Amino acid sequence: MKKRFEPGKTALVLILINLVQVALIGAVLLYFIDTDKGTELLSNPLSMVVLTVITVTVAADSIIVIRSRASLIRSGHEFRLLEDTLAKLEKLNTTLRAQRHDFMNHLQVVHSLIEMDEYKAAGEYIEKVYDDIQRVSRIMKTSVAAVNALLQAKLMTCEKHGITLELDVRTQLKDLAVPSWEFCRVLGNLIDNAIYAVLESGGEKHIKVELYEDLWHHYFKVMNSGEPIPEELTGRIFEAGFTTKGGKGEGMGLSITRRIIEKHKGSIGVAREGDRTVFAGQIPRQQISIEIEPDM
């Protein structure tokens, strides 16, 4: 069975090891003080220097481990996200290979029907497989494989729960300034929240994701038909630890999303548009300098 990296447990073990070291040093010092050797030890400058160095080193190491715990946990989250992204890419690759195989079979069937002058049957057959072709083409519009894999995975999740996920992708994200795995984290958090909202509402199950661009920015929107967020809570929705999911949420997803967006000089907000809750944001495009050679 494959074991997962658990940064929280690792940090806790390191802290406990350091505390045990401090306790052992303290026990040794108490032993020497309570015996005849204590006076000899305390009167020896070299021994005192060695003990002081050991004690200070262990204490400093303990402080560093404790302070690094949050960073270690964050690294663990990023590691798990990369693992998840790679798994989605592998799944997408498998899906596309299977669909390529099916597509070749479909072409052979249509070709045979046309050769037999069965044009009506060929047309009907094409109509039946057209929906599958459209379903794949909706996803494969960006140049970022990780984003394509994420959208494919979320589309499958929505279909499993009877949710209509509408994808409106009008950008290839070729000059995306945010690392792909971080942008997947943003979209993943927003879509997961939308899925939770529509499932909890018990009404219409509809989510729409928009990705588009202009000359200066990439834009993203995730809209859902779930219950509206109370107006008094919208100002706190991006706070770390704040959640509207009760015991089902940790309150970190939207906080992490805003941190990623703002780190790359972007912005994100939430609003109510008609009967839809809309999370919308923008990220400045990566600027590419163009050198113009002077006329000779």
SSE series: HHHHHEHEEHEE
Q: What is the CATH architecture descriptor of the largest domain?
A: 2-Layer Sandwich
If you consult CATH, what is the topology of the largest domain? Heat Shock Protein 90
Poorly predicted ranges: 289-293
Tell me the strand percentage band: 5-15%
Percent helix, as a range, is 55-70%
Instruction: Report the CATH C-level class of the largest domain.
Output: Alpha Beta
CATH level-four homologous superfamily name of the largest domain: Histidine kinase-like ATPase, C-terminal domain
Number of strands: 5
Q: Mean pLDDT, as a whole number?
A: 78
| Total number of domains | 2
* Structural class estimated from helices and strands: alpha+beta
Brief summary:
The protein is an alpha+beta fold.
Question: What topology emerges from the helices and strands here?
Answer:
Blueprint: H1 7-34, H2 37-43, H3 45-115, H4 119-139, H5 145-160, E1 164-169, H6 180-201, E2 206-213, E3 217-224, H7 253-263, E4 267-273, E5 276-284
Parallel strand pairs: 1-2
Antiparallel strand pairs: 2-3, 3-5, 4-5
Helix pairs in contact: 1-2, 1-3, 3-4, 3-5, 5-6, 6-7
Could you characterize what this model shows?
By secondary structure, the protein is of the alpha+beta class. It folds into 2 domains: about 5-80; about 140-285, 2-Layer Sandwich (Heat Shock Protein 90). About 60% of the residues lie in helices and about 15% in strands. It has 7 helices and 5 strands, in the order αααααβαββαββ. It has helices at about 5-35, 35-45, 45-115, 120-140, 145-160, 180-200, 255-265; strands at about 165-170, 205-215, 215-225, 265-275, 275-285. Strands 1-2-3-5-4 form a 5-stranded mixed sheet. A hairpin with a 2-residue loop joins strand 4 and strand 5 (about 275-285). It is elongated and about 110 Å long. Residues about 290-295 have low confidence and may be disordered.
